[in-house]
Amino acid sequence: MRAAAAVLVALCLAQLLVSSVHAYPRFKSELPAIPVVAGQPWPGVGHVAREGGGKRNAFGKDFDEAGYRWTRELCRMDSDGDGFTNGQELGDPDCTWVKGQPQRTAAALSHPGLATSVPAAAQPAAASAPPAAATGNPATATASGK
Ligand SMILES: [Ca+2]
C-alpha cells in the first residue's frame, strides 16, 4: 500500500515536471518569432527569465489575456512600452502572421516584453520632441471697453 502511494506521488511529480518543461515550447509556435536579445535567443518570451518559467513580463501577461494566441490586438500592443508594437518587435509589423506560417528570423527582432530591447533597424526616437507645453498664461489682456 505504501509502495503504491509512493509510485503515485512519483508519477504526479513526473507529470508536473513534464508539463512545465513543455509549457513554453508549445507557446513558441503561437508567436511569429523568438526574440533575440544581445545576440542570443530569448525562448521564454513571456517571462523575465530568458529560458522561461517564473515571473512573467508585461508581454507574458498580455499574451495570457489574449488566450495564448497571436491576435491582431496583441500584435498592435506595445506591451513593454518602448514605442514599438509587439508585431514590430517580433518581425510582424503589419500583423499578418498566422500560426503555421514560418517564423520570422529577421535580424531586427527584439523582445516585446523588455523595454531595453528594441529592433536594431529602428533605433528608439530618443530625441522625439515633447509636445509644446501650453504655458496657460495667455497674454491676451484685451482692454475691456469700460
Ligand atoms: Ca514594445
From TrEMBL:
**UniProt keyword annotations, A-Z:** Signal
Give a yes or no for keyword Phosphoprotein in this entry: no
Q: Where is this region: Disordered?
A: 119-146
Classification via Pfam families: Temptin_C
Domain Temptin Cys/Cys disulfide: residue ranges:
21-113
Q: Which residues form a coiled coil?
A: none
Q: Per its UniProt entry, which superkingdom is the organism in?
A: Eukaryota
Signal peptide from the UniProt entry:
1-23
Specify the protein name: Temptin Cys/Cys disulfide domain-containing protein
Q: Tell me the classification of the organism that encodes this protein.
A: Eukaryota, Viridiplantae, Chlorophyta, core chlorophytes, Chlorophyceae
